[in-house]
Amino acid sequence: MELSTMLCILASLLSIVLFRVFMKPYFASKRRYLPLPPGSMGWPYIGETFQMYSQDPNVFFADKIKRYGSMFKSNILGCPCVMISSPEAAKFVLNKAQLFKPTFPASKERMLGKQAIFFHQGEYHANLRRLVLRTVMPEAIKNIITDIESIAQHSLTSCQGRLITTFLEMKTYTFNVALLSIFGKDEIHYREDLKRCYYKLEKGYNSMPINLPGTLFNKAMKARKEIAKIVGEIILNRREKKKEHKDLLGSFMEEKAGLTDEQITDNIIGVIFAARDTTATVLTWIVKYLGENPTVLQAVTEEQESIVKRKEESGDEKGLNWEDTKKMPITSRVIQETLRVASILSFTFREAVEDVEYQGYLIPKGWKVLPLFRNIHHSPNHFKEPEKFDPSRFEVSPKANTFMPFGSGIHMCPGNELAKLEILVLLHHLTTKYRWSVLGAKNGIQYGPFAMPKNGLPITLYPKK
Q: Which residues bind heme (predicted)?
């Protein structure tokens, strides 16, 4: 009886294997005859790059969706793409690692480094993600709140009483926090050189990948070499001193991490880039939205002042601690609503690792796939009056897959806790100690690559009496 059962099982398994072997070409050929999604590929090579990066992404995407539906093809930065704008499709793409791998156009891979965490999956990605999370999860970042607060206070003090460009000042703040989390106290020795190189790097980030002398791309690649040299010097210096460090570089350099110097350098460059502009852009939008919504500003200010008052009455130290940041629900909802309305990351890149059939269309192997977060966040099907800034909407959790400011799946941004912490710390001091007025047009928006208040939001910052 047992023998016959085993023979039946083996026969069944053999049948399944033979079926898959013989039918795979049939299904593969069937997929090849599926139509591509509707859409336009634009001009040869450059595609529709300029149209997308030079105008309101809402207008660009909304026009495409109106003409072609929630799934359409395009060509961005020299890459054929399929863009998707439904929560279900975004979930499908972001959570099917066996079908879609994280990727960027080749020019961005060259600029950040091909060994960076963004471009990989599998064991190597899992190892990197574990190493990063060790240094940016609550247990680790709660130990650097005092240092973040010191950076925030210095940033605001240096701005008071003068006209500033909010975005540029916030970039300096988030850049310094990023360096702190990566290099610890060592960062101060390399801060200015790294900042100079990163400004050159970011200017060429969304340029056409033409590596000729004088082009933005060429200048960016030269800056990248300089950054790699600086990181290499820091690594060498640490090895000579043989001192243990609890920061991200220390995590990468551990022997059991198993990373080469090239892998460490690529990931350090990538992490700094990821941590800088996005958070600075969010902070710039928050300053704008708070200035335009006095009732919300008052609620945030009262919440932050209550923390100061409570600490004074109890005789606690004046500085913020981890527990204080957990008593900021209104401020936290302001951050969430800003992430939704501004949608700093309009989309992310994935690449089909094989021909994929979805909703009756073919996504060819090698094509980029872009989940359109901005359109999901601005859909009236998911958010009532989506263009209205209303933090109270987050008193109730949004529907699944309709709010994805940090992505989704195994490639979800690992640094979101650090980003939220540095925003909360700066807003605490901004709202309790300062007031500000906006100079010039209040409604203008500029694009490329991130949507941002016009001219980076010029304001004058005044200390409260």
A: 413
